[in-house]
Amino acid sequence: MFRFIVRRLLQMILAFFGTTLIVYALMFAGQGDPIQALAGERPVTAAQRAYLTEKYHLDATGVGGFFYRYFDYISNLLRGDLGESLTGRSIGDILAAAWPVTIRLALIALAVAVIFGVTAGVLAGIRRASIFDNATLLLTLLVLGIPTIVLAPLAQYFLGVKWQVFPPTAGADPDFYALLLPGIVLGSLSLATALRLTRTSVAENLRADYVRTARSKGLPNRRVVSVHVLRNSLIPVITFLGVEVGNLMSGAIITEGVFNIPGVGFNLFRGIRTEDGPLVVGIVSVLVVVYLISNLVVDILYAVLDPRIRYE
Amino acid sequence: MSQHAVRPTPASPTPPGGHLLEVRDLHVEFRTGEGVAKVINGVSYHLDPGETLAVLGESGSGKSVTAQAIMGILDTPPAHISSGEIRYSGHDLLGLPEEQRRQIRGKEIAMIFQDALSALNPVFPVGWQIGETLRQRLGMSRADARRRSVELMDLVQIPAAARRLGDYPHQFSGGMRQRVMIAMALAMEPRVLIADEPTTALDVTVQAQIMDLLADLRRNLDMAMILITHDLGVVADVADRIAVMYAGRIVEHADVRSLYRAPAHPYTKGLLNSIPRLDQRGGKLSTIRGLPPNLMRIPSGCPFHPRCPYVQQVCVDVVPHDLVLGDGRTSACHFAQEVRDDRAG
Amino acid sequence: MSDFETVAASENQAARRGPSGEPGTPNQVGRPRKPRSLAGDAWRDLRRKPIFWISLLLVLLVTAMAAVPGLFTSNDPADCVLSRQHAAPSGGAIFGYDFQGCDTYARAVHGARASLLVGALSALFTGLIALVVGMLAGYFGGWVDAVLSRVIDIVLGIPLLLAAIVLLKRIGSDSATVRVAAVIFVLAVLGWTTAARVVRSSVITAREQDYVAAARMLGAGNGRIMWRHILPNALAPAIVVLTIALGSFIAAEATLSFLGIGLREPTISWGIEINNGRVHMRESATPLVVPSTFLALTVLAFIMLGDAIRDAFDPKLR
């Protein structure tokens, strides 16, 4: 187990340097004017130009200069210094204000996925080919097939603006109720995926040989399903949900943007819209780290849940 | 030996009080989207206390399905028991409510399966899995169940049992895993043990150890055993009687000695001839020609007729009944006596 | 990224962490051994499914829309007059006019071309990359497989939307062709992994077949075996995955355009239309609802079509 964790940790560190290098290279390499690359089409003031040149060591040149700047960027990133956005605010401060909102939203979405997705998935898996099963399959296919850029604005229009069941936008300091609709929209995709995954997993495990063994021990059907089948079926589901936590936190760009929720995704959304290069690079870098860490946590979780992996 | 009566009933006389376990004229179908497969077509056999019955047949002959019907663990659907009776010490199992059948499983009749790696739950330690039966069925405390699990693992000769309680199935060798399976089945001291191909997935040397273990345990614990196998080689030393199955029927039923000496069904004869034997060196190893029948389209008359070297017109037209050959032997062949007396085949 | 996650990607999660720790091959397990009747069985099964016919009809409809938009509307989508802002339906404009005074319906119809072009070409390039990588990894095995499988793992580990944001920010040009090409490139480079895994596992299955051994014994070279014997086996499952992927690529293109980093005006894209409609939804909702419906139905059609075909070919779970 210990060696497994160490191995995965080393892999993650490797992936971290690889990914950040790619992000960094794509942003700056081969660009005629790296400052203009950061700023996009906006005019750059002399003060900004001076700040960016100093911040990113743009006066160093060549391949050596590139790596010098890259390690500079990495060490800043690791120290939590993300620099300033073009509007002059500290990116670290922006993120510090944004994370709590994003995490709350992600938790609501996750709760929706677990409560409805996993429960319905278990039922559908047990009653395979029933009306309930076919109905949920069709419904999840619909959810999976409708892009978020359709679902979010339409939910906002119909439930928020037209019928006024929910507040249409969240505003500066959103409460639970204001985050509920965006949370459901964000979680619906995870819900559908978790449901399908649970269903397939339960259905497969119900036919496993060990189920026959458990029944031949004379255990009641209830126990066979709730202990033997579920313990096995939920391994892929839990690992999926673990990955989803990472995704939900970094992937709420559309939902946060549409519902005006001041989270991390919203700031990225705004950074893209306003062509704020430093803000985009800063947030993307942090999100990549979040993503890598959540993947590591999931792999360890998987090893904890499945003894076959643990003792490999 | 020459008496010749056509009777569709089991051969040996029923002892007073009935057999311990008796299957009577069982029919099982599998109903799938493509049609109905008749998997069991009128199987009857019985088991008395303390004896070992070997059920022999190719895969698909219905030997495992019969066992699962006895246990009550058939998947229904697709399986459907269309008729027949399964009696266990006087009770008709098929007529019992599920809750009472469940009480019998494991406690009265226990079963071990072919592939212990998939038959054991991969995510629980073996000690937990053995102990689960004790805790759930006998209401033992955690500590008692643990102690008893160690005893059971000692009983099936797993070395350092106490230390291995916490290990997971995949950490055991094939033979040790099968021993865990056996320990689990013995947990509630059943009166009948059904062993479904217990050695098929194992190496030859380990096979012999497991068969010896099963034979010893059966004797020491005074159980009756149904040993399901496709391998004639493993049953000779262990079984008292043999029932040979083909296409969901029992085609021959005899005590071990007479069956080996003079098989009375062409199929049994074919099986015996396809075993390599040390005392017949240089002889050509024969095989049974053709393939087992498709259970959705079982051949007319005797189901074995397309593969049978003795085939006559009557075999194509008429389903043979069990022919009683004396000594408690039966054979479902129109020419049972001729086959038995034909030593050349 | 959850915004892009679709049926294909979600199923991939299960495959990715199969209980053996191997890159899973769930599609192979229950496959009948008789390939000659498989296509026939699948077709008989498909014919009875209403979902198959509905999605096929939708796919054909949107393809016709992309090829000959004139069949569906005679109005010019670029004919925008501010005086008609949010005007009621009139003439050919059956859904009225949007904020800019453009014909909402005409713009939605003309949006099909960019979507389908990006979706189809991304799927095509994805398929090519997946076939090459999957065939090499599956056929040669050993270290080739080890290296390529790690590459697949790494690319699969890149969050799609974040990577697309970084890549597309580099494109300064507003030229329609450049932007379309850039989006296709980004989607193909990031999206080929699922299909490559499917190809790899079907190649591994095919490689073990007797006829391949026979061909090898008759002296056929690697190239010939791969082309004549392995490729046909890998093609069918790859096409199913790519049909589903085509749907998700269309959704991805719309998402990127919605964010303003994909296609840009004057190219007509459903993503841009939805974003424009969203901003003014309080005044008039039809400019939001109409392109949303077009996009959702198109994506759904491809995903459902692929799903139905896969179910028919893989009857394990019914």
From TrEMBL, chain A:
It is found in: Cell membrane. Pfam families: BPD_transp_1. GO terms for cellular component: plasma membrane. PROSITE patterns: ABC_TM1. Residues 99-302 form the ABC transmembrane type-1 domain. It is a multi-pass membrane protein. The chain crosses the membrane at residues 12-30, 105-126, 138-159, 179-197, 233-259, 279-305. InterPro entries: MetI-like, MetI-like_sf. Its main location: membrane. One of its GO terms (biological process) is transmembrane transport. Keywords: Cell membrane, Membrane, Transmembrane, Transmembrane helix, Transport. PANTHER family: DIPEPTIDE TRANSPORT SYSTEM PERMEASE PROTEIN DPPB-RELATED, DIPEPTIDE-TRANSPORT INTEGRAL MEMBRANE PROTEIN ABC TRANSPORTER DPPB-RELATED. Belongs to the binding-protein-dependent transport system permease family. This is ABC transporter permease. It comes from Verrucosispora sioxanthis.
TrEMBL record, chain B:
SUPFAM superfamilies: P-loop containing nucleoside triphosphate hydrolases (SSF52540). One of its GO terms (biological process) is peptide transport. The keyword Membrane applies. GO terms for cellular component: plasma membrane. Gene3D superfamilies: P-loop containing nucleotide triphosphate hydrolases. Keywords: ATP-binding, Cell membrane, Membrane, Nucleotide-binding, Transport. It comes from the Bacteria. This is ABC transporter ATP-binding protein. It comes from Verrucosispora sioxanthis.
Automatic annotation (TrEMBL), chain C:
Pfam families: BPD_transp_1 (PF00528), OppC_N (PF12911). InterPro entries: BP-dependent_transpt_permease, MetI-like, MetI-like_sf, OppC_N. Signal peptide: none annotated. Residues 112-306 form the ABC transmembrane type-1 domain. PROSITE patterns: ABC_TM1 (PS50928). Belongs to the binding-protein-dependent transport system permease family. This is ABC transporter permease. It comes from Verrucosispora sioxanthis.
